Amino acid sequence: MKYRNLIFLHIPKAAGTTLHSILEQHYAPANQCSIYDPEQAARVLPQWPRERREAIRLLKGHLAFGLHQHLIGTSAYITLVRDPVDRIISHYYYVKRMPEHYLHRTVIERNMSLRDYAMAKLSDELDNGQLRLLAGIDNDRAVPIGACDRRLLDLTQGHIEQHFALAGLTERFDESLALMAIELGWDWTPAYQNLNVTQDRPRQGQIDPAARAAIEQANPFDCELYAWVKNRFERLLSQHRAEILDRVARIHEANRPQGLVRLGV
């Protein structure tokens, strides 16, 4: 895929912090721009002078789709999507252990269970949050909580088909890196440490079935999107099977001397 600029659309709690650290090794600091507020990004980036925007070759952070319109030259997007149930579990336990998070006080004061958290409509991050960012929705005024629909799902699928070098899978991190390398023409082998890992959280099989059902009920379009991205990912893997196996082996070899472990989020 031909591109001048790379945009990493980092969906919260989808292994993005680790990917940030990989990308930062391969772009000069002067050519990187990181923004972690989708609404702020949509507001301030268009106002920057052309010279400042032209310097950007790597744009990354919690962004909504569409910022390529304000960069100079052709842009390619990458992202990682995550099983929505796993993502909300991780989000809940992350919020509980981070006093500075904007939802922490509410969760603690209300003594909210995971099921409560999924059903409470506290934030658009928890209401098809992956779909929203990939569709280009940067705030809950544009699409209120509970108002996501199939039109947004169709829009998001079109964005991925037309503008993304890869929508990878958090749960298949090394294979996602290998596919990114193929699609973007990287001639380097990523080595990484696992960053921003949520500790002491249960896995899907350990949670109350009612909590799982609540998460799925609150995120139906994220569930459909994830299934679609996973199917597309599998097709891409099958097209590059031999090269993927080679590149994943090289990633593992690059990590082995440092005693690094596989990704967990």
Short description:
The protein is of the alpha/beta class and 265 residues long. It contains 12 helices and 5 strands.
Structure description:
It is a single chain. This protein has helices at 16-24, 38-44, 50-54, 84-97, 104-109, 114-119, 129-135, 150-163, 173-184, 209-218, 220-239, 241-255, and strands spanning 5-9, 32-35, 58-61, 75-81, 164-169. The protein is an alpha/beta fold. It has one domain (5-256): 3-Layer(aba) Sandwich (Rossmann fold). Strands 2-3-1-4-5 form a 5-stranded parallel β-sheet. Helix 7 (129-135) packs across helix 8, helix 8 (150-163) packs parallel to helix 11 and helix 9 (173-184) crosses helix 12 (241-255). Residues 259-265 have low confidence and may be disordered.
- How are the strands of the largest sheet arranged? 2-3-1-4-5
Number of strands: 5
* Spans where pLDDT lies below 50 across 5 or more residues: 259-265
The CATH top-level class label: Alpha Beta
Q: How far is the N terminus from the C terminus?
A: 29 Å
Largest sheet: 5 strands, parallel
Structural class: alpha/beta
Oligomeric form: single chain
Number of helices: 12
